[in-house]
């Protein structure tokens, strides 16, 4: 039986895009592996347990997360946490047949015959100001040096595949585009009686404009807030703006604007998956004005739930969303304002986008994604 190690360090933090990808693919690879692969997960410790989006934490997961919270309290430890994580793996003597790093940079201390790494985008290189200084320093020090250790690269879109070819001069036969998916058991249309409970719990208005994503610079929220502010007062009362997601970083100005306009804007923070699915269902319009994405999960999840969507025409987003959304230039405040008004005032267009969105989202599934990952694992192990 082949021994496979999957890096799962991203599952120890609140689950955002890379953590979601890691969990959904890993869970399915575990099920698909049968008696061919013995799969382990690296959290600094090597375990067979898959941590992450479980409602109840196991004892060992709880201990690991307590340690992480302790580290985050101390800036020096926090800055060194990635290095510490890599350092601890030096003490593991086990050699694996294959090491899969779903989060960019392969760990140089992992002993493995073959290495696969997923590159999600190049924002750390193209827009370093979108990220924390310690992360950029870590990437500058390690990415270009260690990515050469990968025998094969996976990425989530053809857009990013072309960036990899351009920036890393890696031959295209060594890169596989595998689209991310949607958990269709979770992100789907729900009956109104189920939605009512969440609507009451979160005190949601009858209609609202919804944004989902980390509160950080690349999501372009200041521009969204400016565009929303240009709406007539009666339209803001008709369509409050609700923001959901992990409180990222460099967001003081965003939070100030939200507080200043709290009559019409609410930030709900990080929600349970089922609450998020219900929120997508209840949204009058979903909006995603991101400046750059290697894939873009929230628009797809919103579309799967039937939310009519307004999305930036940049990077990978048109590749993923097809003709099932209304596109905007994320730098054009007036256009964003106009598209919100257009869709709000046109019930027929919203219904058409809702139907198109569900059809487009149906093309993407984590089951399909995991099967494609399994094919790449087999191919690399056979070399």
TrEMBL record:
InterPro entries: Glyco_trans_1, Glyco_trans_4-like_N. GO terms for molecular function: glycosyltransferase activity. The keyword Secreted does not apply. Residues 16-185 form the Glycosyltransferase subfamily 4-like N-terminal domain. Pfam families: Glyco_transf_4, Glycos_transf_1. Residues 196-359 form the Glycosyl transferase family domain. Keywords: Transferase. The keyword Transferase applies. This is Glycosyl transferase family 1. It comes from Sulfurimonas hongkongensis.
């Amino acid at each position: 039986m082949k021994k496979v190690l999957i890096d799962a360090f991203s599952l120890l933090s609140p689950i955002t895009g890379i953590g979601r990808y890691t969990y959904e693919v890993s869970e399915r690879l575990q099920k698909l592996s049968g008696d061919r692969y013995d799969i382990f997960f690296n959290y600094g410790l090597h375990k067979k347990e898959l941590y992450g989006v479980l409602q109840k934490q196991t004892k060992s997961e709880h201990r690991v997360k307590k340690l992480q919270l302790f580290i985050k309290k101390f800036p020096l430890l926090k800055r060194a946490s990635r290095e510490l994580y890599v350092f601890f793996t030096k003490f593991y003597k086990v050699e694996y047949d294959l090491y899969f790093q779903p989060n960019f940079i392969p760990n140089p201390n992992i002993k493995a015959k073959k290495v696969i790494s997923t590159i999600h985008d190049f924002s750390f290189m193209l827009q370093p100001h979108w990220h924390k200084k310690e992360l950029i320093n870590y990437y500058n020090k390690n990415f270009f040096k260690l990515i050469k250790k990968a025998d094969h690269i996976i990425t989530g879109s053809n857009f990013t595949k072309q960036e990899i070819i351009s920036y890393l001069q890696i031959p295209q036969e060594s890169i596989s585009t595998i689209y991310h998916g949607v958990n269709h058991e979770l992100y789907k249309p729900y009956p109104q009686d189920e939605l009512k409970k969440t609507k009451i719990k979160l005190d949601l208005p009858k209609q609202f404009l919804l944004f989902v994503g980390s509160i950080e610079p690349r999501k372009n929220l200041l521009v969204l807030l400016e565009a929303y502010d240009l709406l007539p007062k009666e339209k803001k009362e008709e369509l409050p703006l609700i923001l959901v997601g992990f409180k990222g970083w460099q967001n003081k100005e965003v939070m100030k604007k939200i507080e200043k306009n709290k009559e019409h804007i609410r930030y709900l923070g990080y929600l349970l998956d089922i609450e998020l699915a219900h929120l997508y269902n209840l949204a009058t319009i979903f909006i995603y004005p991101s400046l750059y994405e290697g894939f873009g999960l929230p628009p797809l999840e919103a579309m799967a739930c039937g939310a009519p969507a307004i999305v930036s025409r940049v990077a990978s987003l048109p590749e993923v969303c097809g003709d099932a959304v209304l596109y905007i230039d994320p730098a054009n405040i007036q256009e964003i304002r106009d598209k919100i008004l257009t869709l709000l005032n046109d019930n027929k267009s919203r219904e058409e986008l809702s139907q198109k969105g569900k059809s487009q989202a149906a093309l993407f599934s984590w089951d399909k994604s995991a099967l494609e990952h399994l094919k790449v694992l087999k191919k690399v192990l056979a070399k």
